[in-house]
Design a protein that fits this description.
It is built from 8 helices and 13 strands. The protein is an alpha/beta fold and 322 residues long.
Length: 322
């Protein structure tokens, strides 16, 4: 099949590799234009561009994929299908109509749950134990098209977003090939999504990483796993003799009765330090207690809890929060 691939981030790389391996005719890669990381730095890396250039595939980098000039470029390739994954722009009906079969999109959730830019992170944040990938037949509405292929997988109790994302990317690549094969043979039976079951997964913001200590220890632990590698989860150590110290929580464990503490953190206010000796830094939450195993003070490297306690003089009764 004559395919135009649309994608930018590393999540889309396994799919493009599988398209090449399956000997589909990859006519072009459409990807976001390069953006500088800082004023004086080089442009950010684009693994999709690198792979396409290595394979001799033309690369199209429009600011607006729906603009007239971009539509003309796409039409010049006479594509059968768009394969879209981790691209970042919504295709207008006029663009979808250019390809014989329209477009398919690989999304990192079991749609209709977690529609949006950050499905992996929000699934972990909300404590989901299962997720997966869905290949949809695209419509102009975000992530709302009918599902052609769906594959589920369990989320490990300790799995971070940084670990789950590449695993889902590899799971999704063969699902895309299965969808293409079904479209080519006319055997695809897309299943419409139930909008009543749809949930949102908006793009992450820095403030999503701020800890609310009134939440449960389990929920805060999920937050730490979900927001790795960005924006990370942070709080502030309140100090009587200076400004609050910003702390990034790198590794935590939810504790309750197994730590010799009642489920309410011994009645202490959420954010109160319960233990601060040896390797144990334990903080009360709205339900249960959270053991902080690794953390990063502002401007410093990541430290084991024992090293942090030796250097910063934290004591039981001290407070974390904003």
């Amino acid at each position: 099949m004559r395919v135009i691939m649309m994608g930018t981030g590393p999540f889309a790389v396994p799919t493009l590799r599988e398209l090449y391996a399956a000997r589909h005719d990859v006519l072009a890669l459409v990807t976001r234009p390069p953006r500088p990381l800082h004023r004086k730095s080089r442009a950010e890396a684009n693994p999709m561009r690198e792979l396409a250039v290595d394979r001799g595939t033309p690369v199209h980098e429009p600011d607006d994929v729906n603009a007239p000039f971009s539509r003309a470029v796409l039409a010049s390739f006479r594509p059968d299908l768009y394969v879209v994954c981790d691209y970042g722009q919504i295709l207008a009906p006029e663009v979808l109509e250019i390809a014989k079969f329209g477009g398919i999109n690989l999304h990192a959730s079991l749609l209709p749950k977690y529609r949006g830019a950050a499905p992996i992170h929000w699934a972990i944040y909300h404590g989901e134990t299962e997720t997966g990938v869905t290949v949809i037949h695209m419509t102009p509405k975000l992530d709302a098209g009918p599902a052609i292929v769906q594959v589920a997988t369990a989320i490990d109790a300790n799995e971070t977003a940084a670990v789950l994302e590449p695993r889902l990317a590899e799971l999704g690549a063969p699902a895309v090939l299965e969808a293409i094969d079904a479209l080519a043979k006319g055997t695809a039976r897309p299943i419409e999504q139930d909008p009543a079951r749809a949930t949102r997964a908006p793009r992450l913001k820095k403030q999503d990483g701020l800890v609310d200590w009134s939440r449960s220890a389990e929920a805060i632990g999920n937050q730490v796993r979900a927001l790795e590698p960005w924006p990370k989860t942070h709080t502030f150590l309140q100090r009587d003799d200076g400004e609050p110290l910003r702390l990034i929580l790198d590794q935590v464990v939810a504790e309750a009765s197994d730590a010799g503490l009642p489920a309410d953190g011994d009645g202490a206010a959420p954010g109160t330090v319960l233990e601060a000796s040896g390797p144990r830094l334990v903080v009360a939450t709205g339900r249960g207690a959270l053991r902080i195993e690794r953390l990063q003070p502002a401007g410093k490297r990541v430290l084991p809890a024992a090293d942090f306690l030796r250097g910063y003089g934290v004591r039981p009764g001290d407070r974390l929060g904003h």
